[in-house]
Amino acid sequence: MQKLHDALERVGKVVLGKDEQIRLAVACMLARGHLLIEDLPGMGKTTLAHALSRIFSLDYQRVQFTSDMLPADILGVSVFDPESRRFELRKGPVFTQLLLADEINRATPKTQSALLEAMEEGQVTQDGESRPLPEPFFVVATQNPLDQGGTFPLPESQLDRFLMRISLGYPAPEAEMALLRAGDLRERALDMTPALTVAELMALMAEVEQVHASDDLLDYLQRLLEHSRGCGWFAAGLSPRAGLGVLRAARAWALLDKRKYVIPEDIQAVLKPVCEHRLQSAAGGAAGGSASRLLEAVPVVL
Question: Using CA atoms, how far apart are residues 255 and 36, in angstroms rounded to an integer?
Fold first, then answer.
């Protein structure tokens, strides 16, 4: 666990003033989830992805999504080999451990959907053959605000594949002063030495699954889910998959606090990043602030 907390501190030295977002990103990975980072350009999204790949010893590929990109640019393409007289797959960048899908909403829905099977099943099917992806496999996707030109909104099925959505936002004045003194920190992120091996990371992921959640705690979570469906605030309430995602993320959050059991504060800490991208207001549009409303409406009774 000490190595894990050292890793958090070291990432915090290249993504300045964003300790909570870094912790959420690491909790997302420990929970075997994929991460969506939505923000304006230049906020450090790519630097965070670089730092996570380096600190956890993960193979890394970056794909810049554009409107003319095709699914084969991500998954790979079958090429005929005249010597063997058969088609062979030239693997695309998805065959890695951490894939940075940069500006994912600049690609068309057809290209966005190429990641659906990879994110859900950990495999890619081409020409009738399924090929497993490396373990662990994480997608860290960045997304520009939808009011910017040249963007295609992610469909609900794609959004649901992301365990969390976070935003970095502008740095605090003191953090920005430190950044101005230090200069561009992207190169420092690329030069980071690993803090944990892949085997140690996977052991922590397995440990997350053993973190205990009591029946009373599960009842609290279920009441939150049920209230989202019956309150009338949203076009549709949270799904069972969303509830399982909250529980996985809360277990990871508890482990980061060096606990083997989940408490209500863990659920409260992860509810917004896990749920708000899955909810739409009944009046249309994003349901901003919905997590806070749910937490205020549903009391903790243990």
Answer: 22
Give the span between the Cα atoms of 289 and 276, in whole angstroms: 8
Q: Which of 60-80 are b and which e, b meaning 16 or more Cβ less than 10 Å from the residue's Cβ?
A: bbbbebeeebebebbbbeeee
Q: Which of 146, 181, 203 is the last residue of a domain?
A: 203
Do residues 64 and 189 both lie within one domain? yes
252 and 193 in one domain? no
CA atoms of 207 and 137, how far apart (whole Å):
17
Query: pLDDT averaged over consecutive 10-residue blocks of the chain (302 residues)?
Result: 88 90 96 92 87 93 90 84 75 93 86 86 83 93 72 80 92 86 75 90 96 96 91 83 96 96 96 89 64 87 72
The model's pTM is 0.90
CATH label of the domain that carries residue 230? 1.10.8.80
